[in-house]
Amino acid sequence: MTSALLYAIAGLALFAIGFFGVVVASHVMRKILALNVMGVGIFMFLIACAKRNPLVVDPLPHAMVLTGIVIAVAGTALALNLMVRIHHIDQSSQEQSK
Amino acid sequence: MNELSSSLLLPAIVFLPLLAAIIAFLIGRNQLQGRINICFSLAQFLLVVLTTLLFLHEQTYQSERYVIGGWGAPLGIDLIVDGFSILMIALTGLLTLLITLYSASYFSDKYSASEKSLRFWPLWWLLISGLNALFMSADAFNIYVCLEIIGLSAAALVALQGSRAALEAALRYLLVGLLGSLFYLFAIAILYRSHGTLDLMQIAETANHSFPDKVAMILITIGLLLKIALFPLHFWLPPAHANAPTPVSAILSALVVKASLYILIKFWFDVLGATITLGASQMLGALGGAGIIYGSWCAFRATQLKVLIAYSTVAQLGYIFLLFPLSEYSMGVSSFTGSASQAAVYFIVAHACAKAAMFLAAGNLILAQGNGEIAQLKGIAVREPLNVLVFAVAGISLIGLPPSAGFIAKWLLLTTAIESGQWWWVIVVIIGGLLGAMYLFKVLSLAFSTDPAVVESPTSKSTPQVSNVMTTVALILALITLALGFNAEFILNISNTVSEVSGI
Lengths: 98, 504
Description:
The complex is a heterodimer of chains A (98) and B (504). Chain A is mainly α and 98 residues long. Chain A contains three helices and no strands. The model of chain A has no long low-confidence stretch (mean pLDDT 91). Chain B has 504 residues and is mainly α. The C terminus of chain B is likely disordered. Classes of the chains: A mainly alpha (98), B mainly alpha (504). Chains A and B meet through helix 1, helix 2 and helix 3 of A and helix 5 and helix 6 of B.
């Protein structure tokens, strides 16, 4: 078993764990984190793909991972923002009811 | 004859909305905002018309390819169009023009807080740019980026309303979209590992019945079905489409779900067609059938007008999935050719126009009425005759009655089902049509019922609320829906070229 294969399997496992979290978690924050774990799993799998040839490293997966990270940051930021705004609305409506 | 070919215009179609997004962001809120955006939508429309005409004029119906920066695949990223994608791009251009006209009125000071229009336009153009880029992308990873651009801007547009329900719907929409995209990305990683390229055509050349390709196809299907909202993965769609501002609801139902559908069709029939089994396509058909029945039933039970229309989208998407098993059966091997593909393409176009018209008309009715309760619509036909007419015409197309685009679409669907000997889909289509008639006539009969108490209520205060532009745009879309029913040949001819080209 090469180290690249080990990383690929670990990436697969992370993807599965993250997916489990997205489905099972009840709190939105946990769901967002679980989505990020899924993303990291895919990125790890991609990086493991870069080492198909023992002599040279394929740069394309790295470019994909970089782009993927940027997209993940944007998605996470938007999700967190929406979550916080829902939280604020809930808080202010609770205060009003008091 | 001339040097200008349609492929040279492809980058401009993506770039122009992107430019519009940046300019809309920079100029912020000022008096010219609406006009500048209308100018951009006109320019965009002319560009798309020019590209379409050039594409048709070239007569080759070969896939037009543009190599970005001179770096060909597999190193670079290519843009490519065939008959199907040029049709989707033309549809996007048309709906962009009309809905931009509508939005310029909808987001003027009369109807909404100034904050909203400030945020709407950049996101709107970003969404259009993403859609255009998606329809011409020939690179699997580029498609992922486009899906995320569409998903992020669409979720932000849903949240524009600012109410708790809208925010929650947007958050759920965003999370589901991200989950779907991650499934897709994982499939791309697997494909890259086994094929060593991201170019769709190069993947198609080496695709086979191997295990990694099958896993990739399953992941792509699950991920995109989540985004398309095929039953039972539709749970996020009704709240998202119902709580969004009206122009956003229209584009979400008309085009954004179709974008994921376009990618699924592309992978299912062109790129990874070798991995498809008869059972898998029958299963998709069965889910589509269940979606028709369930979506129509929920639409019938809905108490809010926009929720009704959103569930109707769930049902209508089911019809398109009936074409997956039909297509496979008719060819022996899976390929997006023949009458099934024509029916699918025509159905997508017909539904996009009818559903956009319906959402815009419903938005006008809700503005005139003050709220979205269906029960409150009693007697509204007296005050808003044109908008009710648009709603009725769009409804006729969705049910599939002649003379409308929806009738032709269903006719093609039924004949394909009978020709291929899969008669059981005919029953589903007929039940779906009846249920569709049930929920749409429920609204119409309420709208036309004359309740003296309602008619006598002061109409002067609510009537002028809906501007003429907004009614006219909805009317134009309804007329297009009718015109498509009379000029079916035109669409079918373009989609016919799909079948000649798509056999990669």
